[in-house]
Amino acid sequence: MVKYSISPSNEKFEIPDEKISQNECLKIKEICVKERKKGKEIIVVQGLGFVGSIMSVVVADCEKNNKKPYFVLGVDLPTEKSYWKIPKINSGKSPFNVEDPEVERLFRRTVEVKKNLRATWIKEVYSEADIVVVDINLDVIKPELGNSKVFEVKIDSFKIAIYDIAERIKPNSLLLIETTVPPGTIEKIVNPILIECFEKRGIDIIKNPPLIAHCYERVMPGKEYVNSIKKIWRTLSGINDKASQKAKKFLSNIIDIENFPLSELQNPTASELGKILENSYRTMNIAFIYEWTLLAEDIGINLFDVVNTIRVRKGTHDNMMFPGFGVGGYCLPKDPLLAEWGSKFLFHREQNLNFSLEAVNVNDLMPHHTFKLLKKGLEGHIENAKITILGASYRKDVGDTRNSPTITLYDDIITEGGIVMIHDPYANKMEGREDIIICKDFKATLKQAEAVVFAVNHKQYENLIVKDLTSQIKRNACIIDASNVLSDNKIVELKKNNFSVFGVGKGHIKYLGGEKE
């Protein structure tokens, strides 16, 4: 039976059968022989998601001393969920819709002009690699939002992926882990797997110890997608000196180390901890501002203005977070839980990371506050009300909907019988929620809406003029600014036209345009 993989933009790709896979394997071997004759190293990137796909194309585009040092093979699974990325990349196109114009140029250049990048699904490529870069997911399952002490780390899936490499990788090749993993993963999980497989393959681990390094990524889809690989500080650590040296040499070729020097830590566990601590700090910072958001709303203060006056203190307060709709994306909702898991299961500690876990809870439940504002604006009448949510992604000007807080708001509205329309200029579908439809027609989404929620501050929404809204929505509709899209002038204009406006962290709205409401 023929199976298909469907892309977020509804392109349909047939998943290859065994015969096609055998031919692909032969073709890959031929390509590797040809590229080695040109003096190139073979780099294999495992995982072609938001991180792996851009890492693949940046490495493939790399030039050193007017030479192209690498040929890159990107690998993903031949499954309904993942396979579509492979033919998409091989056609010279990015698998993801992002704001950075450099992305499409890079994919066209590396695939069609330089011919330095090919995507595949064949595991045998690991035996060809001089370096394998791991950029796969390590998922965390949270059965219930707001209860961060109950979760599951899908470590078995990660182990399977490492076994796929360990059973094939050459003993002198480098395994570079970029995936965010619990502290202790490389030394207590990955290295033992490689040792086990090397011994089964008859490889002398004294003469040829596994070469493993950890270097966490800081990839940010958006306008600086490419530069979040090439022009960003990176931290690394190898399991031994040889691994560290190989990792530094490789990373020095693809990163602007003159302006963004590499940092090296004492061991991979320190590097693993660094990534999770970095993201947990942001998680805590976001959760911290939430209770101040509620206070500011209650006492009539614009918290955005207040925070801006505090952020002038460079070096101590310039990264204080602004009020917001909620927290999404792949990293922040789960990374503190990876630290908790590593602490408990790899280091057998009894003490919990209680502050960090509670911050995850606060952030998970944050969209409920926007729902309360919406309910207030509709005077409690959610049932059968047509409500438009503007923004499905978790971040401005990207199409990534993983763990989007819009999902929580959508569920709140549906539970009380509301009718929801969602628009997003970048996202085509809601990750993990096929029941949620994203509309691309902005006017149709707004038509006759009784309430509008600005969930994401996409550029398109920030550039709206008031008439773009008022010409489509119902008279006297309510508008919830959950992401600081609307300027005070626009809010005043809306209020003058008898629209009610509420905003997250914008308690001052009640005073705009005249008398206190």
From TrEMBL:
Keyword Protease carried by entry: no
One GO MF term attached to the UniProt entry: NAD binding
Residue ranges of the TM segments: none
Protein keywords: NAD, Oxidoreductase
InterPro entries attached to this UniProt entry: 6-PGluconate_DH-like_C_sf, NAD(P)-bd_dom_sf, UDP-Glc/GDP-Man, UDP-Glc/GDP-Man_DH_C, UDP-Glc/GDP-Man_DH_C_sf, UDP-Glc/GDP-Man_DH_dimer, UDP-Glc/GDP-Man_DH_N, UDP_ManNAc/GlcNAc_DH
GO annotation, biological process: polysaccharide biosynthetic process
UniProt domain UDP-glucose/GDP-mannose dehydrogenase C-terminal: residue ranges: 388-488
Family, similarity comment: Belongs to the UDP-glucose/GDP-mannose dehydrogenase family.
PANTHER family: UDP-N-ACETYL-D-MANNOSAMINE DEHYDROGENASE
Name of the protein this chain belongs to: UDP-glucose/GDP-mannose dehydrogenase C-terminal domain-containing protein
Source organism (scientific name): marine sediment metagenome
